[in-house]
Amino acid sequence: METKRVAVTGMGVISPSGNDVATFWSNISAGRCAIVPLEGYEDTGLPVHVAGVVKDFDPLKYGMTPKEVKRSDRFSQMAEAAAVQAVADAGIVSGETVAPERFGVYVASGIGGYETQISQSRVLFEEGATRVSPFYIPMVIPNIAAGNIAIKMNAQGPCMAHLSACASSTNSIGEAFIAIQTGRADVVLAGGSEAVLNPMALAGFANARALTPEKDPLKACLPFDRRRGGFVMAEGAAMLVLEEYEHARSRNAAILAEVVGYGCTCDAYHFTSPRPDGEPAARAMKLALDEGGYRSGENLYVNAHGTGTHYNDLTETKALKIALGEEDARRASISSSKSMTGHMFGATGAAEAIVSVLALKNGIVPPTIGLEEPDPECDLDYTPLKAVRRDLDIALSNSLGFGGHNVCVTLRRYVD
Q: CATH: 3.30.420.40, 3.30.450.20, 3.40.47.10, 3.40.50.1820. Which one for 261-412?
């Protein structure tokens, strides 16, 4: 069976770096840090001082009613807002520009309605079982963002919620790519959302020694720098409209890039630590690059997972060298946008895919800010401090999650 081409025709984002794609890209390409001091938890004893916080978010601006807001968790609200942006950007209207049964929604979340989980647990223990909200379950389940968006947009095609920790929304994009490639849908809205800036999540990650103890936001997230001390938690949502190429062309849609490859493997090694030799991660990268038709010598941008944890950065460096070969790995332009946003968990892969699309489209490699003292073992071109201009051909967006999930998507610059 002949596989179909897959275009990106719309994007939307709610993030610490901005609540629309134009603002997000302006801040990312300029290397502006969106990590801020963490406020409101001073009495908890948390050894965490910074976070990537979404600012000035009002779900009512995106067509949600006060009743819908009251009956939905923050993660679902942000997902819906990013989805509204993305379909408007693409010009997608169910029943007009796409048949409802050919319109899919793949929205990931690493945890789901965690704010609701905590608030309703407090109700249970303090007020009793009869006081727990009847909306508790539909607010907390991780698939509800996908369900709510499908209802709102009359998307009657495949609807899924992928859950693979930090790799979740990259899985959503990859699986949406397959669905369109194989003719199961014409349009899929794919991405993810996360809202876990609360004492329980912060304490859990901090006690697992995954978070940085740094107090200065500008020194907090230092991927590939020898001073790195852990990642920075963040929240947000990001969505991309993936569309079958001929379907997009038939309606004269603006094509932003093409999704051309997908790789997915597991370390099968440890529940939090990456496999030290990087072999399974390298295999995921190579699968995505090979499917995307990557040729040695092409101008490649890699949006690294780049969390700023000691072992992740070392492993990803090794994996890139294995996947690309030493020479091509050194030619690649690589950066970590988490150095500016923090780690948005279930949303981060989709946000970084948006960065990759815009890097290709604009010929700009965004920087890894804070990278002033490179780790000698992380010796590739991680684009320190400032963006650089480069005519890029192809991009690889990497996501590596707890549980050993290695997920990568490849995108190509679109030339009409």
A: 3.40.47.10
